[in-house]
Amino acid sequence: MVAKDGEGVATSERELTITRVFNAPQSLVFKVWTQPKHFSRWLEPKDFTTIGCQMIVQVGGMYRACIRSASPSQRESPEGTDHWMQGVYREIIEPERIIFTFAWENENSQPKNETLVTVIFTEQNNQTLMTFHQAIFESTESRNSHHSGWSECFDRLNAYLANTMSGKT
């Protein structure tokens, strides 16, 4: 049986799980998740650019990052729109797991609809299986939007890891 929330929406419909296998060691995949100079290089969906990233990677430490849309609409400035995100690290077990909160900021730089993200890194034959889980979203539409965005980020992560492994970054 699937749990329902107060609105009658199945909780599982508001959770997101993505798995990826990267041709990189577990320690490297963990590293690019926990160092701003690396994190900022892949934390952007298609048509976005990361313009700021601050991280204090320790339990209770905060992170804050900004991605800017590359293709402005009529409502946006010519430079695009800035989208700020923030969160707090809840658990860090190097090189196996990171748990943190995630929230987009509102116009007053306050978090809105905080979710919990768990990223597990498992070494398998010199590759890394990454299991990404995020919950609980306000709606299935929000979950679907995050699925698209994170999937594009993980495509960039895969390319970044390949370049890092070959010495191009």
Quick take:
Residues 23-161 form the Activator of Hsp90 ATPase homologue 1/2-like C-terminal domain. Pfam families: AHSA1 (PF08327). By secondary structure, the chain is α+β, with helices and mostly antiparallel strands.
Regarding CATH, which class of the domain at 11-26 and 33-46 and 95-165?
Alpha Beta
Distinct helical segment count: 3
Low-pLDDT runs: 1-10
Which structural class best describes the helix and strand composition? Answer: alpha+beta
CATH superfamily of the domain at 11-26 and 33-46 and 95-165: START domain
Quote the CATH topology of the domain at 11-26 and 33-46 and 95-165: Alpha-D-Glucose-1,6-Bisphosphate, Chain A, domain 4
The total of beta strands comes to: 7
Alpha carbon gap, first and last residue: 47 Å
Report Rg: 16 Å
Q: Would you tell me the overall average pLDDT?
A: 89
The CATH architecture of the domain at 11-26 and 33-46 and 95-165 can be named as 2-Layer Sandwich
Q: How much beta, percentage-wise?
A: 35-45%
- Indicate the percent of residues in helices: 10-25%
For the biggest sheet, the summary is:
7 strands, antiparallel
Q: How does the overall form come out from the CA principal axes? A: globular
User: Order of strands side by side in the largest beta sheet?
Assistant: 1-7-6-5-4-3-2
Helix and strand sequence: EHHEEEEEEH
Family: Belongs to the AHA1 family.
Pfam families: AHSA1
InterPro entries: ASHA1/2-like_C, START-like_dom_sf
Organism: Myxacorys almedinensis A
What this model shows, in words?
Belongs to the AHA1 family. This is SRPBCC domain-containing protein. It comes from Myxacorys almedinensis A. This protein has 169 residues and is of the alpha+beta class. It has a domain at 11-26 and 33-46 and 95-165: Alpha-D-Glucose-1,6-Bisphosphate, Chain A, domain 4. 25% of the residues lie in helices and 40% in strands. It is built from 3 helices and 7 strands, in the order βααββββββα. The protein has helices at 26-34, 36-42, 140-165; strands spanning 15-22, 48-55, 62-69, 82-93, 97-105, 111-124, 127-135. It has a 7-stranded antiparallel beta sheet with strand order 1-7-6-5-4-3-2, with helices on one face. Strand 4 and strand 5 (97-105) form a beta hairpin. Helix 1 crosses helix 2. The termini are far apart. Residues 1-10 have low confidence and may be disordered.
